[in-house]
Every structure is written in C-alpha cells, then in structure tokens.
Design goal:
The protein is an all-alpha fold. It has helices at 2-9, 12-18, 22-56, 58-61, 67-72, 92-123, 125-141, 144-163, 170-194, 198-206, 211-222, 224-240, 243-248, 266-273, 282-318; strands at residues 76-77, 88-89. The protein is flat, with a radius of gyration of 27 Å. It starts with a helix and ends with a helix.
Length: 319
C-alpha cells in the first residue's frame, strides 16, 4: 500500500488534475469577497438597528414615559413644564406632518413621473435620450439645500402672496419634496418601462390594440412592480429628507389643520434638537425615540410596497 501511495503521489498528471486551477482559485476568491461584503453590510445594518432601537427604547424603560402618550400625544414641549410641572412629549404632530408631506408629494409626483417616463420610453425615445435624460440626471444630483433655498425664496413668498399667512407650512414642504423626488421616481420608472420585453408591445399591436391601449393595458401593468418600487424610493427620500423641509415647513410642532398650516416633521425636529440636548437627558432620549419611529415607519413603507408588488405578481400569474 505504501509503495502504491508513493507511486500515486509522484504521478504528475494526477497531481495536476487534483490541484485547483488559477481560474478556480479566482472564483473562490470572488465568492469569499462577495460573502465578506454581504456579511459586512448585514453587520452594519443590524448594528444600526440595534443602536437606534436600544437608544429609542430608553425613553420608555429609563425615563418611564408612557408609550401610548408619547405616540398619540398632541403636545410637544420637552423644555418648558406645563402648569403641573410636567414636560410634554407628544409625537403625533411630527408623525402627522411627516406623513402628510410624504404622501402628498408622492401623490403629486407620481403622475408627472409616469407621464415623463412614458414620453421618454414609448413616445419619443430619441428626444428623451438626448434632452430629458440629462435633465433628470441633473435634478437627481442637486443638493437638498439648494432645493430648500429655492423653496425659501420662491415657493414660500409665492404661497404667501396667493393664500396669505406666512407661506410656511405643509403645502410649501409638499412642493419642495415634489420637485426633489420627481427625478428619483422618474429615473426608476424609466428603468421599469425599459425592462418590459418588446414582444409584449409587438403582441399587443399585432392583435389590433392602439398605441395608448398597448401602453395602458400592457406596458403599465407589466411595469407596475417596478413603478411601485420607484414610488417607495421616492417616498423614502421624502420621508427622510430633513434640511429642505426644515427650511420651508415652519417648524411648529403643532397638529396641522390645513395645507397652509405650519408644521414640523420627525426629521426637522431631530435636526433642530439633537445638537442642543445633553447626552443621557430625557430631551435627548425622546429625540432618539423619534429616530426609532422614523426607522420603523421607513420599514413599514417598504413592507407595504413589497406586499403590493407581490400581490401584483400573483395576479399576473393567475391571468
């Protein structure tokens, strides 16, 4: 047996077959690198969630603030005690303000984004590629503070002249966010439309559908999951936007009673207060709780859109 083993170990052909080739080693290195990147991203995301949740829950565990009163309370006054000597931490005005500007801006931006995308992909692709595509890409790259300055110097005075009041409020925030998320939704909607196979278009036209029937009945339905993904990306940007909204929304932590009412969002209160509170104080803890709510709401949006996209795919399979 020993003599046979020595003979096999000295066989160069067998040894060369058993050794890994350079290509196999590169493949193994690539898999290891990809797995390492995936694990690193997972650890970073888990760490962020753990850190924000652990700090956000301190309001309820250490400061003993009632969670129900915190979420559904309508008075936010973390620095000045009321007549009974109690500080008031009601986050509902900021929650309502964040949802209002996000939903309204997405509601206004989505039809414009879909119409622009259809023009660039289905109606005039040459013009879209040469003219509209650079414009959309330019809008994506504009910093949010520029949008905020434009909103402060153009939108707010315009609304003040038309509707009266200060001009600051939900409507000003909605207009600024509409412009900000429009290129995001448009870019992703364009990708969704381009991903629709050409034989869908050819089949629809072959059975006698008009161009608009093809777009409405076939293209938009086939691209629905991608369009929903575009909307959620736009809403995620709107929901997490802080600086531009803070410059035009009015920053009043009160329940909004109309589109021209001054309001505050979760992000605007966070950016205003996080640098003015001592670490470990109750005022700092409640801001971390607002950050936790912001994180949970962003996940909620992603979950809802994901469920809608899943239901759309199931419906397509049934048809």
């Amino acid at each position: 047996m020993t003599r046979r083993h020595n003979k096999n170990s000295q066989d160069p052909i067998r040894n060369s077959l058993l050794q890994k080739s350079i290509s196999a080693k590169k493949d193994e290195f690539g898999r290891s690198l990809s797995l390492s990147a995936l694990i690193l991203i997972g650890v970073v995301v888990f760490s962020i969630f753990f850190f924000v949740l652990s700090r956000g829950l301190m309001t309820f565990t250490l400061d003993h603030i009632n969670p129900f009163n915190f979420i559904f309370g309508t008075v936010w006054n973390p620095t000045s005690p009321d007549a009974n000597g109690n500080l008031q931490f009601g986050a509902m005005p900021m929650i309502v303000g964040s949802f209002l500007v996000t939903l309204l801006s997405a509601l206004v931006a989505t039809p414009f984004a879909i119409a622009t995308s259809l023009f660039m992909v289905e109606i005039q692709p040459n013009w879209g590629k040469k003219i509209m595509q650079p414009v959309v890409e330019l809008l994506v790259g504009i910093p949010s503070v520029v949008y905020g300055f434009i909103g402060l110097t153009v939108v707010v005075p315009f609304l003040r002249n038309i509707f009266g009041g200060s001009g600051f409020g939900i409507l000003a925030g909605t207009i600024v966010l509409f412009v900000m998320i429009l290129p995001t939704i448009t870019s992703l909607t364009i990708d969704a439309l381009k991903n629709v196979p050409n034989h869908y278009r050819e089949s629809a036209l072959a059975i006698g559908a008009t161009r608009w029937q093809m777009i409405y009945k076939v293209i938009l339905r086939a691209a629905t999951p991608g369009i929903l993904t575009a909307i959620v990306f736009g809403m995620a940007r709107a929901f997490g936007e802080a600086l531009a909204v803070q410059m035009v929304v009015g920053n009043a932590a009160i329940m909004p009673n109309g589109l021209m009412s001054s309001a505050a969002t979760l992000t605007s209160v966070l950016t205003q207060g996080i640098g003015n509170t001592a670490d470990g104080s109750v005022q700092n803890d409640v801001l971390w709780t607002l950050a936790m709510l912001l994180l949970i709401m962003s996940l909620f949006f992603n979950l809802i859109i994901g469920l809608i996209g899943k239901q759309t795919n199931i419906s397509k399979g049934k048809r």
